Amino acid sequence: MRRFLKAAQSDKKLELISFFIIELCLVEYEMLKFPPSLLAAAAIFTAQCILSGSKQWSKTSERHSNYLEDHLLECSRLMVTFHQKAGTGKLTGVHRKYSTSKDGSMTIEPV
Protein backbone atom coordinates (compact mmCIF):
# COMPACT_ATOMS: atom_id res chain seq x y z
CA MET A 1 0.00 0.00 0.00
CA ARG A 2 2.80 2.43 0.88
CA ARG A 3 4.52 1.76 -2.43
CA PHE A 4 1.33 2.41 -4.36
CA LEU A 5 0.70 5.60 -2.36
CA LYS A 6 4.20 6.80 -3.20
CA ALA A 7 3.59 6.09 -6.90
CA ALA A 8 0.33 8.05 -6.67
CA GLN A 9 2.24 11.00 -5.15
CA SER A 10 -0.14 10.98 -2.22
CA ASP A 11 -0.62 13.61 0.42
CA LYS A 12 -1.81 13.01 3.99
CA LYS A 13 -5.47 13.32 3.04
CA LEU A 14 -5.26 10.69 0.29
CA GLU A 15 -3.26 8.43 2.58
CA LEU A 16 -5.79 8.74 5.41
CA ILE A 17 -8.79 8.03 3.20
CA SER A 18 -7.01 5.11 1.52
CA PHE A 19 -6.23 3.48 4.86
CA PHE A 20 -9.79 4.12 6.06
CA ILE A 21 -11.19 2.39 2.97
CA ILE A 22 -8.83 -0.57 3.19
CA GLU A 23 -9.65 -1.06 6.87
CA LEU A 24 -13.37 -1.05 6.07
CA CYS A 25 -12.72 -3.93 3.67
CA LEU A 26 -10.84 -6.09 6.18
CA VAL A 27 -14.08 -7.16 7.85
CA GLU A 28 -16.06 -7.77 4.66
CA TYR A 29 -16.33 -11.36 3.46
CA GLU A 30 -17.01 -10.25 -0.13
CA MET A 31 -13.53 -8.77 -0.38
CA LEU A 32 -11.75 -12.11 0.09
CA LYS A 33 -11.98 -12.80 -3.63
CA PHE A 34 -9.54 -9.98 -4.38
CA PRO A 35 -5.76 -10.29 -3.92
CA PRO A 36 -4.27 -7.91 -1.31
CA SER A 37 -2.40 -5.93 -3.95
CA LEU A 38 -5.65 -5.27 -5.83
CA LEU A 39 -7.35 -4.17 -2.59
CA ALA A 40 -4.51 -1.71 -1.92
CA ALA A 41 -4.60 -0.31 -5.45
CA ALA A 42 -8.40 -0.08 -5.47
CA ALA A 43 -8.43 1.69 -2.09
CA ILE A 44 -6.08 4.36 -3.43
CA PHE A 45 -8.04 4.65 -6.68
CA THR A 46 -11.30 4.98 -4.71
CA ALA A 47 -9.80 7.61 -2.41
CA GLN A 48 -8.57 9.58 -5.43
CA CYS A 49 -12.08 9.44 -6.93
CA ILE A 50 -13.61 10.61 -3.65
CA LEU A 51 -11.20 13.54 -3.36
CA SER A 52 -11.24 14.68 -6.98
CA GLY A 53 -14.77 13.71 -7.96
CA SER A 54 -13.45 11.92 -11.05
CA LYS A 55 -11.45 8.83 -11.96
CA GLN A 56 -7.70 9.29 -11.67
CA TRP A 57 -5.33 6.36 -12.16
CA SER A 58 -2.03 7.48 -13.59
CA LYS A 59 0.34 5.58 -15.84
CA THR A 60 2.83 5.59 -12.96
CA SER A 61 0.27 3.95 -10.67
CA GLU A 62 -0.50 1.41 -13.41
CA ARG A 63 3.17 0.59 -13.80
CA HIS A 64 3.86 0.19 -10.07
CA SER A 65 0.69 -1.73 -9.24
CA ASN A 66 0.36 -3.72 -12.49
CA TYR A 67 -3.37 -2.91 -12.49
CA LEU A 68 -5.24 -0.98 -15.13
CA GLU A 69 -8.15 1.20 -14.10
CA ASP A 70 -10.57 -1.38 -15.53
CA HIS A 71 -9.19 -4.03 -13.15
CA LEU A 72 -9.97 -1.82 -10.15
CA LEU A 73 -13.57 -0.88 -10.91
CA GLU A 74 -15.45 -3.87 -9.43
CA CYS A 75 -13.47 -3.74 -6.20
CA SER A 76 -13.75 0.05 -6.05
CA ARG A 77 -17.54 -0.07 -6.41
CA LEU A 78 -17.75 -2.43 -3.43
CA MET A 79 -15.47 -0.13 -1.45
CA VAL A 80 -17.74 2.83 -2.14
CA THR A 81 -20.70 0.79 -0.87
CA PHE A 82 -18.85 -0.04 2.35
CA HIS A 83 -17.78 3.59 2.72
CA GLN A 84 -21.38 4.76 2.42
CA LYS A 85 -22.48 2.32 5.13
CA ALA A 86 -19.48 2.93 7.42
CA GLY A 87 -21.34 4.74 10.19
CA THR A 88 -24.31 2.38 10.31
CA GLY A 89 -24.68 -1.34 10.79
CA LYS A 90 -23.09 -3.72 13.25
CA LEU A 91 -19.41 -3.07 12.60
CA THR A 92 -18.72 0.61 13.14
CA GLY A 93 -15.30 0.39 14.82
CA VAL A 94 -13.34 1.57 11.79
CA HIS A 95 -15.71 4.51 11.31
CA ARG A 96 -15.34 5.50 14.97
CA LYS A 97 -11.55 5.18 14.72
CA TYR A 98 -11.33 7.56 11.77
CA SER A 99 -14.10 9.89 12.95
CA THR A 100 -12.25 10.93 16.07
CA SER A 101 -9.31 13.21 15.52
CA LYS A 102 -6.42 12.48 17.87
CA ASP A 103 -4.14 15.21 16.62
CA GLY A 104 -6.52 17.91 15.45
CA SER A 105 -6.30 16.77 11.83
CA MET A 106 -9.16 15.98 9.51
CA THR A 107 -11.83 13.43 10.22
CA ILE A 108 -13.58 11.25 7.68
CA GLU A 109 -17.29 11.14 7.01
CA PRO A 110 -18.99 8.69 4.62
CA VAL A 111 -19.88 9.98 1.15
From TrEMBL:
<protein>
    <recommendedName>
        <fullName>Cyclin C-terminal domain-containing protein</fullName>
    </recommendedName>
</protein>
<comment type="subunit">
    <text>Interacts with the CDC2 and CDK2 protein kinases to form a serine/threonine kinase holoenzyme complex. The cyclin subunit imparts substrate specificity to the complex.</text>
</comment>
<dbReference type="InterPro" id="IPR036915">
    <property type="entry name" value="Cyclin-like_sf"/>
</dbReference>
<dbReference type="GO" id="GO:0051301">
    <property type="term" value="P:cell division"/>
</dbReference>
<dbReference type="Pfam" id="PF02984">
    <property type="entry name" value="Cyclin_C"/>
</dbReference>
<keyword id="KW-0132">Cell division</keyword>
<keyword id="KW-0131">Cell cycle</keyword>
<comment type="similarity">
    <text>Belongs to the cyclin family. Cyclin AB subfamily.</text>
</comment>
<feature type="domain" description="Cyclin-like">
    <location>
        <begin position="1"/>
        <end position="81"/>
    </location>
</feature>
<dbReference type="InterPro" id="IPR013763">
    <property type="entry name" value="Cyclin-like_dom"/>
</dbReference>
<dbReference type="InterPro" id="IPR004367">
    <property type="entry name" value="Cyclin_C-dom"/>
</dbReference>
<keyword id="KW-0195">Cyclin</keyword>
<feature type="domain" description="Cyclin C-terminal">
    <location>
        <begin position="1"/>
        <end position="111"/>
    </location>
</feature>
<dbReference type="GO" id="GO:0010332">
    <property type="term" value="P:response to gamma radiation"/>
</dbReference>
<comment type="function">
    <text>Essential for the control of the cell cycle at the G2/M (mitosis) transition. G2/M cyclins accumulate steadily during G2 and are abruptly destroyed at mitosis.</text>
</comment>
